Amino acid sequence: MASTAAGKQRIPKVAKVKNKAPAEVQITAEQLLREAKERELELLPPPPKQKITDEEELNDYKLKKRKGFEDNIRKNRTVISNWIKYAQWEESLKEVQRARSIYERALDVDHRNIALWLKYAEMEMKNRQVNHARNIWDRAITILPRVNQFWYKYSYMEEMLGNIAGCRQVFERWTEWEPEEQAWHSYINFELRYKEVDKARSIYERYILSVGSA
Q1: How distant, in Å, are the alpha carbons of 12, 13, 201, 204, 213 from that of 19?
Q2: DSSP of 126-152
Q3: Under a CB-based contact definition with an 8 Å cutoff, are residues 148 and 180 in contact?
């Protein structure tokens, strides 16, 4: 039975898949969800900065921060960077005495940590606590006399303060340890800066003798 043109029904064409092999990179549902979550996170605005309006809020803020630092230290006392961050935070609040106490506690944990001594002394110098800084440098060079950095910074501090006799005394103590050549040259150059040629010559002679006896 023939059908008329009007009575014909159009059957939609089905697209032919030429390559039925799986795609080289398979994307899982989990990956799609994760990427959507990442895009969502990217669009989130940054958290608002905390505004402290009164003294009570400030004290609460300090209390929470201190508790966080103390918890970190309790978890791992030997991570000296945690102690330094804690002390530097206290210093940023002008709480030098608290920072000092933290550095001292840290030294009880690791008194041979070079960075700890340096940060401690630098804090005292930055806050113009000269006698405290002297005390720290003095302790540092007594405990770790082979760390040249301590001697250089100690002598430099004294010279910048105009304490020439004190600087000379630091160099004298250093040379007792028969340090490397650069230390002697630093001492000689120091004396030459102040036109103390005879002293510089004497130091050079001592250096030659120390090399000869080594």
Answers
A1: 21, 18, 90, 86, 86
A2: HTT-HHHHHHHHHHHHHH-TT-HHHHH
A3: yes
- Residue 99 near residue 88 (C-beta atoms within 8 A): yes
pLDDT of 125-143, one tens digit each? 999 999 999 999 999 999 9
Tokens of 9: 């029904």
The CA distance from 21 to 150, in Å, is: 69
pLDDT, greater one: 6 or 108:
108
| pLDDT at res. 20 | 52
In 3D, which of 126, 106, 130 has the Cα closest to residue 117? 106
The whole-model pTM stands at 0.73
- What residues have CB less than 8 Å from 143, skipping those under 6 apart? 111, 112
User: Which residues have a Cβ under 8 Å from the Cβ of 140 and sit 6 or more positions away?
Assistant: 117, 121, 147, 150, 154
> What is the tens place of the pLDDT at every residue in 165-197?
999 999 999 999 999 999 999 999 999 999 999
Distances (CA, A) of 118 to 51, 97, 115, 203: 33, 17, 5, 28
